[in-house]
From TrEMBL:
EC number assigned by the record: 2.6.1.44, 2.6.1.45, 2.6.1.51
Positions bound to substrate: R347
Entries under Gene3D superfamilies matching the protein: Aspartate Aminotransferase, domain 1, Type I PLP-dependent aspartate aminotransferase-like (Major domain)
Keyword terms of this UniProt record: Aminotransferase, Pyridoxal phosphate, Pyruvate, Transferase
Designated name of the protein: Alanine-glyoxylate transaminase / serine-glyoxylate transaminase / serine-pyruvate transaminase
Enzyme class: transferase
Coiled-coil parts of chain: none
GO BP term, pick one: glycine biosynthetic process, by transamination of glyoxylate
Key word Protease present: no
MF (Gene Ontology): alanine-glyoxylate transaminase activity; L-serine-glyoxylate transaminase activity; L-serine-pyruvate transaminase activity
InterPro entries (alphabetical): Aminotrans_V_dom (IPR000192), Aminotrans_V_PyrdxlP_BS (IPR020578), PyrdxlP-dep_Trfase (IPR015424), PyrdxlP-dep_Trfase_major (IPR015421), PyrdxlP-dep_Trfase_small (IPR015422), SP_NH2Trfase/AEP_transaminase (IPR024169)
């Protein structure tokens, strides 16, 4: 076997992440690697922190990217805030709420589950009932944007409820950051984690996190030290902290952080609210096209995510064959259903750079061509005009 340089195909990424990465971000990755304790690297790290505070809409000092993917940000929040025996109310309305439960239990804490049907938003009434019934609970954890179903939950209302019952909040914003309205300080979020490969359109492998004063206070009062050495915030902060002298904890992923710096800068240049509006406008266009074709959304209107569109698969076609043909014939990636929705839905992502008018039209045209060729029962010739009208009037 002769191994040669790996040249990946150029795809259009319209699945649940990673999303398309802009050439500006890719070229930032290719800049010279410098030492992670180099003074000029420290300056860039401070800028990353400031840009993240903007993206999260927070003044939290403890805001930085964990050097690992979104799942590590999740683990950082749970491992630092929980101790054995704590009770946590965990909302589950898809795959990622289930991972929160795993995290709680692995910390030796007790997960009190509030379950909602997959595809529905978290029901604040059920959460309030659980908070009332469990005065021993010290944390409420929920997923803001459930990527497995495309449902958006009302983070503002859920956080207000949690504080009314003296609970801290842990929020999964992996898919919402940069794509949906999110205001960490105004909404009173105590611990939040995200990922770089979704609406930030950066490369995978970093997890922005942020912790409120209340959360930091809770961490300081721990009786036991955090069981994970790598994710222990008291150690990581020696490196990311703003007390001047940076000390070695682990080698930061230097080039990936250049990429994050560039993608956050692009978000700042566009303006956070403009980015939210762009995602929502292009969701309307995609929706108009998909519905004209005859596909339907599984999430009720009003709690649909713009950046993750879960739609039904026509009954007479094979899910995997359609996705394979889109990939091979059009270099287009869309997502499969996860968990109980496997084989039942497609998940079409409009995340970050992937949320563009040209991607919407390309996706609709490719999907229509493949489905029509496979003899699916869909309406043809109507999707593109419907999307055109929704986008440009
Ligand atoms: C993608 C995702 C994660 C996990 O992020 P990774 O970077 O894949 O580890 C967690 N929660 C949600 C809601 C996600 O969409």
């Amino acid at each position: 076997m002769t191994i040669t340089t790996f040249n990946p195909p150029v795809r259009t990424l319209m699945g649940p992440g990673p999303s398309d990465v802009h050439p500006r971000v890719l070229s930032a990755l290719a800049r010279p690697t410098i030492g992670h304790l180099d003074p000029s690297f420290s300056t860039m790290m401070d800028e990353v922190k400031t840009l993240l505070q903007y993206a999260f809409q927070t003044d939290n000092q403890l805001t930085f990217p964990v050097s690992a993917p979104g799942s590590a940000g999740m683990e950082t929040c749970f491992a630092n805030l929980l101790e054995a025996g704590d009770s946590v109310i965990v909302c589950q309305n898809g795959v990622f709420g289930g991972r929160m439960k795993e995290n709680v239990e692995r910390c030796g804490a007790i997960a009190i589950m509030v379950e909602d049907e997959w595809g529905k938003a978290v029901d604040p009434q059920k959460v309030e009932d659980a908070l009332k019934a469990h005065p021993e609970a010290s944390v409420l954890a929920f997923v803001h944007a459930e990527t497995s179903t495309g449902a958006l939950s009302d983070a503002k209302t859920l956080c207000a409820l949690a504080h009314q019952y003296n609970c801290l909040t842990i929020v999964d914003a992996v898919t919402s950051l940069g794509g949906s309205e999110l205001r960490v300080d105004d909404w009173g979020i105590d611990a939040i984690y995200s990922g770089t490969q979704k609406c930030l359109s950066c490369v995978p492998g970093l997890s922005p996190v942020s912790f409120s004063e209340r959360a930091q206070e809770r961490i300081k009062q721990r009786k036991e030290r955090v069981q994970s050495w790598f994710l222990d915030l008291s150690l990581v902060m020696g490196y990311w902290g703003n007390d001047g002298g940076r000390s070695y904890h682990h080698t930061a992923p230097v080039n990936s952080l250049y990429a994050l710096h560039e993608s956050l800068l692009m978000l700042k240049e566009e303006g956070l609210e403009n980015a939210w509006a762009r995602h929502s406008m292009l969701h309307q266009a995609l929706k108009a096209g998909l519905e004209a074709m005859g596909l339907s959304f599984i999430v009720p209107e009003g709690s649909r995510l713009a950046q993750l569109n879960a739609v039904t698969i026509p009954s007479n076609v094979d899910d995997a064959v359609v996705r394979k043909r889109l990939l091979h014939e059009y270099d287009l990636e869309i997502g499969a259903g996860l968990g109980s929705l496997a084989g039942k839905v497609w998940r079409i992502g409009l995340m970050g750079q992937s949320a563009s008018a040209s991607n919407v039209m390309f996706c609709l045209a490719s999907l229509e061509s493949v489905l029509n060729d496979m003899g699916a029962t869909i309406n043809t010739g109507v999707a593109l005009p419907a999307a055109q009208k929704a986008t440009f009037g």
